[in-house]
Amino acid sequence: MNEKVRIITDSGCDISPEAEKEWEKYLVVMPFAVTINGETKLDRSEILPDEFYQILKENDEIPKHSQITQIQFEDKYRELYNEGVREIIVDVINSRGSQTFSQAQIAAENIKDELPDLKIYTVDGRNYTLAYGYPVLEACKKLAEGQAVQSVVSYLEDWASHSEAFIIGFGLRHMKKSGRISAAASFLGELMGLKPLIILYDGVTEVLKKARGNKAVIDAAVETISQRMIPKTPYCVVTTTCPEQEKEFIDKMTKKVGYPPEMVEKCGVVVSCNAGPEFIGVLTRGQERE
Asked: How far apart are CA 82 and CA 84, in angstroms?
């Protein structure tokens, strides 16, 4: 076991609190702060997904989440060092959607002279939610099995270069208003009952399919996602407030590819800030990108 190694990620990863607790020997989840109606709360401890979904439905204001700062990373590095940790892997949210990754890098550079025997490896998750949360958990398992740190870093970088995230959008009011998911912001056809399937990776957002009605867009999503993902690789699902559609998608996707999702978790506060409370997220391993 790698007792002197930790993996740091952020709360946008949507790893469940139960999984975080199970892997606390290796895993540190740093929370984002979220501000709505003038009040700032820490994700996971001071506000939870179900409460946040309700706030989104009842308020027109678009909440904001702040990046995790260089100072916070420096403090965490020192804290872990004082606990005996000598190698840290940092794998955080897509660098094109947040400055959190660059803040982690700056912090690592800043304490290099202060803690010369602390090695810090930074990995850009290059995506959102379980697209980097799932491989982070797998990386914890690899550390527990005794795999070398550099091998684990390579695994995380490889996963990031293949990760694809999909949004099956049932309600676009919030996405359009936030403007952060450009494909949703420019989507036309809601008055005709059209629903989009959107892909996200490396800051890119694109409408892949549109279909009239919930069932039709679910069917289109199953066909499109199953064709894009590498066969026999794990996929994950994040849910919000659409239980019937979520069950229908999981049932149809399971039948289509021959196995169920590896993880099903509620979409957390960070992604919901921009995507709203009415969608299904699907995270897969696709073709490699540079």
From this structure: 5
